[in-house]
Amino acid sequence: MPLPTVAIIGRPNVGKSTVVNRLAGVQDAIVYDQPGVTRDRTYKRAFWGDREFQVVDTGGLVFDDDTEFLPLIREQAMAALAESIAAVFVVDGQIGLTSADEEIATWLRQQPVPVLLAVNKCESVEQGVTQAAEFWQLGLGEPYPISGIHGNGTGELLDQLITYLPPAEEISETEEIRVAIAGRPNVGKSSLLNAFVGETRSIVSPISGTTRDAIDMLVERDGQTYRLVDTAGIRKKKNVEYGPEFFGINRAFKAIDRSDVVLLVIDALDGVTEQDQKLAGRIADEGRGCVIVVNKWDAVEKDSYTIYDYEKIMRDRLHFFDWAEVIFISAKTGQRVEKILDLVNVAAEQHKRRVTTSVINEVLEDAARWHSPPTTRQGRQGKIYYGTQVSSRPPTIALFVNDPALFNDNYRRYVERQFRQSLGFAGTPIRLLWRGKKVRDMERGNVNRATRV
Ligand code: GDP
Ligand code: GDP
């Protein structure tokens, strides 16, 4: 498992950045009194006892006000929490309980992560206990009086925090990449799996996947571990009877849902069929990285086709998939099989990539300069105020605009093309969320998926 993340949540000015620096042991950081708007989420490494983690600072969370960039900050905080193993909710012990704290607490109580309540600015230990007491009513368990500035109380907080963290030996810095091999029956999935196992050689432990009767397999190459998802749904063992569902499309869909990168295996002799398109659609919908693997290339009459002609015909049938790399291989002869994992590495890297807010806004400014947003007959023109990446896997960028209805599909596609041209993202889908200034989108689900608007 990768380094676990702890999100620091709270309203503006309660001392979140100060607490982050304290937990991360950053001594000399100066905390500026700046509004949280332009601040990207920052990740800082922290140690306590034998546990290691990273703390992520979030902008000040405010629920009852949609002015300026507050919806964006809120979205950032939600995205940060979604990828965290635990959260520290910071409140201000000198000011006392506020209604904004209550709103945040209500939201936090609904989240599936443990929350620790830190009552900051309690420099005096005796007073701190009294100051902290009223925060019991937030329903988040024991309030910990601390001082981010002086450091008192943070030891107790950290002692409790690390009980939620995995032991060091479970953390590996190079994350495994989860790979699904998907494709119609007989395209050569199990041949490819065998070719991989021969190719990678090391390992190879079959381990239970999360769904019933799914077996994953770990393979390793050049220090990188790959988890081949649900190989039981691929391998046909002799003398074993499997029901029709075993190799069915639902099973393929489930494997896709659990992966970072999908190898979409296509039979070179058949070309892209309707079922291939269906699988491709699922991969894009689920936001997975993808490499298109055209198998049985050895069996194709090379006189009638060149790779380029072939790729062109194929791309036409998968036109919404132009971001995915294509590789022509033969699982049978082993031709180019060893190159597949190189493409998987690129796709996985791009899939989890984070781009800073300033870079995103440069692309947006450039895009608007070349091609201004559309204007209605009544003279209203679309305006993009600001963009920021709210999550990764796949990269998801929220664009705050005056009115999403003013941006037609053409312009949206244009902006997406600009992002691809400037930033690449080879091998991964990206998502753009067009948000009006007044959006009040409190559901976490809307941040993470299903909001391809
Ligand atoms: P954020 O907006 O929540 O990230 O808050 P900051 O970390 O920027 O801190 C806001 C203000 O509170 C700054 O003026 C800090 O110096 C002050 N502050 C932070 N922690 C403490 C603390 O433990 N005690 C006191 N007295 N002030 C603090
Ligand atoms: P699966 O159903 O997708 O797992 O497909 P299999 O791996 O069982 O392969 C189906 C058939 O295609 C078998 O007869 C294989 O020998 C054949 N096959 C697989 N890969 C290749 C290849 O690269 N070239 C050729 N010519 N045949 C292949």
Structural notes for this entry:
The chain is of the alpha/beta class and 453 residues long. The protein has 3 domains: 5-170, Rossmann fold; 176-351, 3-Layer(aba) Sandwich (Rossmann fold), CATH 3.40.50; 357-452, GMP Synthetase, Chain A, domain 3 (2-Layer Sandwich). The chain is 32% helix and 21% strand. The protein contains 13 helices and 16 strands. The protein has helices spanning 16-23, 70-82, 99-109, 125-133, 154-161, 189-200, 249-257, 274-286, 307-317, 337-351, 357-370, 409-423, 444-448; strands at residues 5-9, 42-48, 51-57, 86-92, 115-120, 143-145, 177-182, 206-208, 215-221, 224-229, 261-267, 289-295, 325-328, 384-391, 396-401, 431-436. Strands 8-9-10-7-11-12-13 form a 7-stranded mixed sheet, sandwiched between helices. The longest helix has 15 residues, at 337-351. The model is unreliable at 27-39 and 439-453 (pLDDT under 50). The structure holds guanosine-5'-diphosphate (GDP) (2 copies). One guanosine-5'-diphosphate binds next to helix 1.
